[in-house]
Amino acid sequence: MRVERQVIFWLAALALLLLLIGLLRDILLPFVAGLVIAYFLNPAADWLERIGIPRVWASILIVAVGAVALITVLVLLVPLLATQAQQFALALPGEIDRIRSLFETWARERFGTRFPEIEEGIRRATGAAGENWANLATWAASSLWSRSLAVFNFFSLLLITPLVVFYLLIDWNAMLQKLDGWLPRAHAPAIRLLAADVNDAVSAFIRGQGLVCVILGIFYALALTATGLRYGLLIGLATGALSFVPFVGWALGLITSTGLAVVQFWPETTQILMVIGVFLAGQALDAGFLSPKIVGSKIGLHPVWLIFALFVFSYLFGFVGVLVAVPVAAATGVFVRFALALYLKSPVYHGETRPVDLPQDAGTSDLASMRRDAT
């Protein structure tokens, strides 16, 4: 089979898959969440099986421990976070006014007679931000609900997802063996190598970057709370959750926390500097230790491509798209690099006229060499 036919076949299969996801996006959330969680927990199930625990009982144990942990978080942490979120939403317009007053005082002293020229612009901008905050929060909540939980409400999500995780954990290895048996025999070695690369990239994000986000969230929440910053727990956990996008989560957390610290502590600067120091320490911890040791360089995604993927998938598929955006982008990166390697070895690149098929007996060393050529 020529390369062109294979490309057409797989592009058609991909288009059909995307069409099905788009049609079923409102009911996919429990299943996609279950798939992501099962992928994250599968190494634990494999380890329990290796030490002699049957796969079924290993899956039951993992789901039971996860359920207990989730219930503990819901009982102990969620009410506190909900209270802080409500207080933050109600207080934000007032906090914006206080920041504006502080800035106006500083600008009046700094610019003197030129200050009235910019004062009206400041008032319009901050006034619009304060007036639109409630509408923005309502829109975000209704959008999340209508696009992600249109059929399954929150309680059905909690009931269905553990069942999906349980059955996927039981049958994970059997499903992989079945899929391997469906591979085109001529290209099975090449596909297995690509699948291994995709697994490395996706695993680095779901398991590696997920663990980094948890660690950073705990660090920021405890450190900001220790500084005495209001809403420190909420902002810290949110910063950790957003840290899966390089620099973006850290920058948003730093800007928000610094602004609130200025409002809360000014003119005392010690605690403001402590808040800034927390984020500098968190960035150093992430860049110097957590990401290199836990994630490494296997994701292989440029931050701009990562942000673009999040925007595109969230726009097309709602919250389901947010869950799968980075794993799919990481897998796409592997396929693009492989396609580039084929292109660099093809007559299209070298100027030959002889058509070239995909390698029929490509081994691991051949494809590894092609990957190195592409990168």
Biggest sheet: strands, sense, closure?
Answer: none
Helicity, as a percent range: over 70%
Overall radius of gyration: 25 Å
Number of helical segments with 4 or more residues = 13
Average predicted local confidence, pLDDT = 75
Give the number of DSSP strands: 0
Q: Which series of helices and strands comes N to C?
A: HHHHHHHHHHHHH
Poorly predicted sequence stretches spanning 5 or more consecutive residues: 147-152, 358-365
Derived from helix and strand composition plus strand pairing, the structural class reads mainly alpha
Gross morphology is: globular
Distance between the termini: 27 Å
* Beta content: under 5%
Please characterize this protein's 3D structure.
- The chain is mostly helical.
- Helices cover 83% and strands 0% of the residues.
- It contains 13 helices and no strands.
- The chain has helices at residues 3-24, 29-50, 55-76, 78-111, 115-148, 154-181, 188-226, 232-241, 248-265, 270-295, 303-344, 347-350, 364-374.
- It is globular.
- Residues 147-152 and 358-365 have low confidence and may be disordered.
